[in-house]
Amino acid sequence: MNDRIEKRIELKASVSRVWQALTDYREFGEWFRVKLDGPFVVGEVSRGQITYPGYEHLKWEAVVQKIEAERLFSFTWHPYAIDTKVDYSKEPQTLVEFKLEKTPTGTLLLLSESGFDKIPAGRRMEAFRMNDGGWTQQMKNIEHHVTEKP
To answer: 129 Cβ partners below 8 Å, 6+ apart?
Structure first.
């Protein structure tokens, strides 16, 4: 099994537009479908409520790792932590990174999520599979967001 999910999409939007969609907590919430409690701050926990249909019972929690203007936004979280009866706090987290590169027609968005090899074996494959599919959808969501709301 691979330890890393990687997605890439060329967006017909400026780097600054994509950056805003990624790092403004309200905009992030619109396309990611989560209602966040407040802005992203490096080193702090970002909390909120998932609004994605079928997952509204779940809380969002991620630790912001890096915010490098118009280049890199990253956080760690517990992947596919959907069983409300399980305490995931003792498990290692995966690292999610969004990298931006200017292109002649807009912005290349590179997404990676790594660290699945450290997730407990009993849920590793399912977490990888579900997040891989989830990121495929989220790349479509951000594309729609930045083109519909330029």
So the answer is: none
Give me the architecture of the 4-148 domain, per CATH. 2-Layer Sandwich (3.30)
pTM exceeds 0.85 for this model = yes
The pair of three-digit structure tokens given for residue 123, joined into one six-digit string: 């849920």
The model's confidence at residue 8, banded by pLDDT at 50, 70 and 90, is very high
**In this predicted model, what pLDDT tens digit does every residue of 40-76 receive, in sequence order?**
999 999 999 999 999 999 999 999 999 999 999 999 9
- Three-state helix/strand/coil letters over the chain: CCCEEEEEEEECCCHHHHHHHHHCHHHHHHHHCEEECCCCCCCCEEEEEECCCCCCCCEEEEEEEEEECCCEEEEEECCCCCCCCCCCCCCCCEEEEEEEEEECCEEEEEEEEECHHHCCHHHHHHHHHHHHHHHHHHHHHHHHHHHHCC
* CA 43/CA 128 separation, integer angstroms: 25
Residue with tokens 């992947």, as numbered in its chain: 79
- Cβ-based neighbours of 1, under 8 Å, separated by 6 or more: 116, 117, 124, 125, 128
